[in-house]
Structures are given as C-alpha cells and as structure tokens.
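Translate sequence into structure tokens.
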Amino acid sequence: MSEEAPVKTRVVFNQKGGVGKSSITCNLAAISAAEGLRTLVIDLDAQCNTTQYLLGEEAEDCSDSIEDYFNQLLSFSLVNRSLSHFVRETPFQNLHVVPSSPNLGDLHAKLEAKHKIYKLREALEGLKDYDAVYIDTPPAFNFYTLSALIAADACLIPFDCDDFSRRALYSLLENVQETQSDHNRNLVVEGIIVNQFQPRANLPRRVVAELREEGLPILDTFLASSVIMRESHDRSVPLLHMAPRHKLTEQFQELFAELHEAAEVA
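Result follows.
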C-alpha cells in the first residue's frame, strides 16, 4: 500500500444485539493484521466486548480509553491529546486497539449537546500510521454509531437470518442512507454478512434468498454457527491464531478476501 493511499475505515453496525458485531470486527481485523496491514480497532461499545477479546486480562487496566478521548473534548483545555495517544498494542503483530469503557454511555448526552459528532472523523483523518481501521459499535443508533458512520468509508452489517433481524434490517438501512445524505456522501454499504448460518434449516435459506431478490447486498461468504467462537472469546484469541484450520476461521478468511477483492475493483 502506498503512503498516499487513504485509510480504509469499516464500521460494523447493527442496531440489534447478539448478531456478532464484536466477533466479526475482531476476526476481520486479526486477518488484516496477519496480512501485513497495520490495523487499528476502535471499540465504541460500552459493553467492551471487543476490548476484552483483543486485550484479555489487560483490558482491566485501560487507563486511557475512547471514553477519555471523548471526555477531553468536553473540557476547556486548549491542547487535547490526539487519538493515537489512546491506542494500545494487542498481543498480535500489527494489531492495535482503542479500548472502550463501561462509562462511555455517561458521556452520550453531553457529546450530543456539544455537537461533537464530527470529532471521530477528524481524529481518524489525523492518523497516518494505519492501513485499515475497524470500528465496533453499540447495538443502537446513537451518537457513537453516527460518529462511526460519519468517519467510515464503508459499513458492514451482520445479519443472523431471523424475522426479527429482517425487520430491523430495513430500519438500519434507512439510518445508513440518512447518514449518507446528511453527513457522509462517500459512505457505502459494503455488504450484509450472514452470520451464524445454519445451511440445513429452511428459514435462513429462505430469508437470504428473499433478501437477494430484493436487491440487498448480501455477501457471498456465510459465517457458520460454532462453539469455537465462544472458546475464542474465552481465551481472548482471534480464530486465526487459536484455530487456523477450523472451518469458521477459513470462512472469515474467505470473507476478508471477498471484501478485499471488491474494494480493489471499486
């Protein structure tokens, strides 16, 4: 990648919880880093699942987090620390993270009131050391999610193939389109990731087929449901490093390749 090439920033977003946002964020980022790309993950979810996944026990000692970054924006200090100050190394080469905090929600209303919605984009524009950025978001369309969508080049939408998720999907896409219109005309929906797919069940296959008939951008690579993901979470080790030959790991690699090839064509 040339020095002049822009950072490719992806936000992983769904207003519904439990659809695998953190798992997808961390495992795609781990593959990106293993491919030799300097990769940054930003955790905007107060549940801190991504932070815990990538840092393990060290997540308990995150004195500088994205909460601290946003908090300084509310102060009257003339000198604020750049986002790079809040970056932490992970145990994995080329992979870094800006940790989240359980207290992140306490700042939400204050940041909205002070109109800080473009600050994350400005912060990322100032980062020159990364080839790829992945942003994990909370299960809600709020200040943090909107900040991420404004800052991103592309949006990835995890989808777990049930009727509740399908209903939420249309509302989600409307929110993304509104963000495109009002704040970030360069934002694209890179694709809908079918997660926890059960190929032998009729409902998931029917739902996916119907969404494709509607013209929605369903990605070709599906991610299977597997207990290995829970083990990966428990050990705080992404699948590529814990079980490189597992079927789900291979699916993540195929997904990464699909996204990379599509980005090159674009």
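Note: Strands lie at 8-12, 39-43, 88-89, 95-98, 132-136, 154-159, 188-194.
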